[in-house]
Input
Amino acid sequence: MLTVPVETQIVFAGILFLLGLIGLLVRRNLVFMLMSIEIMFNSAGLVFIIAARQWNQPDGQVMFIFILAVTAVEVAIGLALILQVYHHFKTLDVDAINKLRDEK
Amino acid sequence: METLIALIPGLPLFSFLILVLFGGKLSRRVAGWIGAGSIGIVAVLTLVVGIHLISALPGLKSYSVIVWHWMHAGNLNADIAFSLDSLSLVFCFVITFVGFLIHVYSIGFMAKDEGFTRFFAYMNLFVSSMLILVLSDNILLMYLGWEGVGVCSYLLIGFWYKEPANGTAARKAFIITRIGDTAMIIGIFILFVSFGTFNIQELMHLASAKWAVGSSIAVITAYLLLGGALGKSAQLPLQTWLPDAMAGPSPVSALIHAATMVTAGVYLIARTNILFSLAPIVQGVIAVIGALTLLIAGFSALAQHDLKRILAYSTISQIGYMFLALGVGAYSAAVFHFMMHAFFKALLFLAAGVVILVLNEEHDIFKMGGLRKKMPVVFWTFLTGSASLSALPLVTAGFYSKDAILWFAYSSNSGGVVLWLAGIVGAFLTALYSFRMIFITFFGEAKTEPTFRAGKLMTVPLIILAVLSVIGGFIELPASMGSVHLFSDLVNNTLPGVGIKDVENREWLFQIISALIALSGIYLAYRFYFKKPAYMESFKHSRLNHFFETGFGFDKVYDTVIVKPAVWLAEIDKKDIFDQLNISIARLTLLGNRLISLTENGKLRWYILSFAIGIALILTFMITK
Output
């Protein structure tokens, strides 16, 4: 079986995380921002899996299941919020939604 | 009997507590009758105790009771202890009896006011403090009552607190009387340091034993106590607060600023008369202050157009008479005039209250007129009060009390022609301004229509007080007409009698002069203000009239000499280096807040970027370490 060195795996996860972060930064559409957050979650989960395999411990995989559950919940709430935001502002542009800032 | 004395100030205090704690739950009816009822019960108690005391006189001088020990520290002993002698009995009688009538009147007067329960709570507290003041057997407890009445006066002047002017008047009254109070407490300290006791009787006993007549310490102490009396009794030079104090409801003016509290100074001097007899020079000053005050206030009253301000200046003037009497050593005459003044001045204020109430808060006498037919009960009672105030000969109480003062101002050891002349000019002015008030308010053509009729609750106290201000005088008749001395016999159990100069006793001559003066004042008022008002119309805009109207410009002088420099100093002090330090801390914090809130711009992606940069920085720091 082809073995990939653990450093490469971590770097892969890091690239995935950065992709998510950049997506979060450059996208203005709320749905895409949510998707970027999902990617970042997955990169974190991937690191857990890599660690579990490296030290032959099941804890990392258990943790990944947890992360899945958390992301599921997060997506559910996030999508509900996005729907409400769309109802209210008739747009999904995150820069337009700034009514809570400190008015001067 | 002794325990009943403790109930006299205790009961109003108790009803005050009930009204304060449960006032919100009581209906107006119940609250009013608790407030007035407690004073009524106390009036009956005073009567019972008084009759017992009078029947025990002169064998027993006073009833005393110690309620509890207030403070004991080293040689400092002060008890909550009361003592009732003939002087305090007279004051108690006036406070409770006149106070009760005014409370009953207030139930009608304040019926539609939203602060009804609050009003009765304050009034009860006032009566309680005033009774503590006159019943206390030590000077410290007396000072407690003294300050208590000051606080109640403040609360009640500013009773309608939504009007900023009323609050200003209340503060003015409080601060000016406070100047006198400060002098008084220093005087009390001197007495305590010198004799190591607060008990008034012991103090007076020790003072006469240890201090020589005219010694500087006696003179200084007497001056300091006089300062307190001048502030409370609105005498020169601390008289400016009383006319403004009329901002309070009329029953307050009647009870506090006419009948009782403002005469606390008279009580203080009468109570500590032994100390003042050790300082003859201060006694002379009292007489001169009284004479000057009664003249200045008399002239001022002549030019006022606010009904209550006329009565306020008249009160200052009448207390001036009492001080004149105190100054010449005629203590019983002063206390007698206090009692008669309480009757007729309370009556005048209450009647004025009715007039102002039914004319929808109209205070200006030139906008009244013709009320004689519209409100006959008020007219006749007001007329009785004014007649008594202007000392209408023979039939009114005011004649007998003022005549006694005028006679002693001339004939007592320290009296003289000048003091008598001041008194007689004052009597003329009194008659003139009293009947000016009557003719302008009640005669002539009607200018404002009354809105409703005053109820029985208001008119019955007026009638009772009117009767008292006529028959009250017959308990003390001068030697030339019947020589009845019921009153002076009573108070002379406590107060020293007056020393008469060796002059030919021509009291009847002086009586005739003062009677003529009073009548001529009334006649001139009739001519100038009823027959030919045009005379006075031209005078109304003159500079002299303005000078009188502003009370001889005292307010203006105090304002430029004291208030403005003080405000200027405070303005400077506001910006000194320490304040700058505090202010710059506040400024710095505010600046930081501005800077940080700049970053809070509502752009979500900007926040995320800051997160990312922050995390990157932290990671870099942790890895490179």
Q: What stands out?
A: Chain B has a mean pLDDT of 85. Chain B touches chain A through ten residues (CB under 8 Å). The CA atoms of residues 77 and 510 of chain B lie 49 Å apart.
